Amino acid sequence: MDGPNPDIKHPIPMHTRVGFLKGLVSAPNIEIGDFTYYDDPDGPDKFAEKCVLHHYPFIGDKLIIGRFCAIAEGARFIMNGANHAMSGFSTYPFNIFGHGWEKGFDPATWSKEVRGDTVLGNDVWIGMDAVILPGVTIGDGAIIAAKSVVTHDVPPYAIVAGNAAKMVKLRFDNRTIRRLLAVAWWDWPVDKISRNLDAIRGADISLLEAAA
């Protein structure tokens, strides 16, 4: 029992709405770990076009998603290309329309709004229609509730919900979270994961540590 092939685009026979994203996304500014999947009734093949918005290579920001993440239908990652300059009286992007409106535009007024890469850890669950704003980091094991708008970093193993999303609770106590992060089962070889699924799916941290 060595698990599914992470390079298979549609790993569930007769259920092609689910796809492992690593084999479906080729954009150089998107990095996706093994076994992370997207679920969409129209199919997962257009994940980058439908779910990763305003992501322009010249900006240089990346979307980085770890291993074993579950991303539900309608999730959206808003990247830095959506930002407007906010230092002046108007946020309207006159310069992009040219015909003389680009004259005098100071690119620094826009570039200072760039917030860096958007990063999802491992084993993150993104609920339906959730929106992740630019530069956010979501920790390992976190859960983002459906229709949440995530504007700030999310700690590991936190559950957040709402607009703007706020932490509802931590999934486990702080000591258990530290132990889970130390085990980092998602980095194990696939055959080791396969042998220890009961410990990974269970709730006995000592059993999981014994398998490490």
TrEMBL record:
Keywords: Acyltransferase, Antibiotic resistance, Repeat, Transferase
Organism superkingdom: Bacteria
Record-linked InterPro entries: Hexapep, Hexapep_transf_CS, Trans_hexapeptide_repeat, Trimer_LpxA-like_sf
GO function terms (MF aspect): acyltransferase activity
Keyword Protein biosynthesis recorded: no
CDD domains: LbH_XAT (cd03349)
BP term (GO), one: response to antibiotic
UniProt record similarity statement: Belongs to the transferase hexapeptide repeat family.
Protein name from the UniProt record: Chloramphenicol acetyltransferase
